[in-house]
Amino acid sequence: xxxGLVTLLVRKxxxxxxxxxxxxxxxxxxxxxxxxxxxxxxxxxxLPSSLTVPVSVAVQEARVASHIVAIDLTKNASLxxxxxxxxxxxxxxxxxxxxxxxxxxxxxxxxxxxNSRDMKLRDAERAKSHAISSANDALSSVEYSCSSIKMDTDxxxxxxxCLDGGIFGLIxxxxxxxxxxxxxxxxxxxxKAIAVPNVNAKRQEFDFVARxxxxxxxxxxxxxxxxxxxxxxxxxxxxxxxxALKNKADTALRLFQAKA
Amino acid sequence: xxxxxxRSIDNHYHLETLAxxxxxxxxxxxxxxxxxYAAAIxxxxxxxxxxxxxDTTNYRLSTxxxxxxxxxxxxxxxxxxxxxxxxxxQEGFEQVAQMMxxxxxxxxxxxxxxxxxxxxKVLELLREADHALKQGMTSTGRDQKAxxxxxxxxxxxxxxNPIGRRNYVAWFQVGWLKWKYELNIVEAxxxxxxxxxxxxxxxxxxxxxxxxxxxxxxYLQKNHSDAYDTIxxxxxxxxxxxxxxxxxxxxAAKAGREAEALELLERCIDQQPQxxxxxxxxxxxxx
Lengths: 260, 287
What we know:
The structure holds two protein chains of two kinds. Chain A contains seven helices and no strands. By secondary structure, chain A is mainly alpha-helical.
């Protein structure tokens, strides 16, 4: 019985030591996997020293531990490994989340930039439209004035015709000098009173204003597009970089979970 | 060879009846493990010195003994530190303590249920007997003797009643008093037998306890074969109970069934790792 008991002791101790060694090894591998994940994800996973330092001691202890201590080591190693995995997974998940947020922020900045360009373009277009419509209004009012003047000047023209036509009638009554003076005065007064606007000049003016507005708009648009394009690669780069970083963290987590 | 240590069964019912909380039970187990640990280390060292064979087993034994010795040496001054370091032991003790507290409740429930059909007189006798038994368990010297004497008389009064004779809790308590107070192993075995017989239809905790104690009485009378047979019945009632399985290993070893004893011990070690130390403190396994 004694020998059987000793054999049992040796066998059970061997078993528990092997088990402890396996668990400690798994714990060590989990720490290695964390270090690898750090490299893949390009971030630091600050494992608490209580989860990393005792592993080297445990490796040695597991070889010489008694049955009970070996079981204790197994339990501790198993718990520590779980803690390492949980800590690293949580850290990587947080990293992925913060990198996803960075992508969202970069995309929002891009959108804001595009919106700002569109707004500027709309403003420039509005300014152009305003200039053209103002000029157009001015032209319309001139044209309207012209048509009004045409109607208003008819009585005067009649009067002048009368004056011109009545020369013969009046020649008898008024001396020629007086008549001539009167006629000149009427013409002067008529011209002064009616002051007929030059529609063609106004139309040219309008065309000029419209062209200028178009030119200004084109220039503004060019300027806005230039400004937008200048920032675009930087912003696209920022998004790409953020996406690449997030992908790295994703891959690191996947690889870590597969490995650990 | 180490001096025989108390077995857990020696105090089991006493502790189970009186423990107020699991902490008390844990402390008791720690104390008894401390002694078993020291005895086991001494036995193992003795075995390593005696054995002259230089085979692999022997070599490994010496490394283990060396390891345990080193652990023992460093921990001797602060033995408590071992328990702090080994969660396994703590958890094991706590688990046993909780189980015993649970069993305490179950035993009380069984006793209460059995009291139910009795007339006032028998009921009073049972209550007083229980009270005296507990008082005796908590006192010492003359007081204890007087209390146990009262408990015995009261229980005998219960057993004189035709219905009271069917109360297996009373029989169990009589058996316990015969063993502990009167030191009458033969009559104690008979009382535990009656308790096990009457509790058989219910196959409850008292039934398993009766069989376990009956087997122990047979063991004390060196009827190892009978003890082995009786403990098998207890194993059938509570197949996962560590203490019953451990006793089964002991009686198997004493009955010359070495392979069976080792198999049972291995299962005990898997269930409670400290068994690997405790078994080396037992003379029954080292003969």
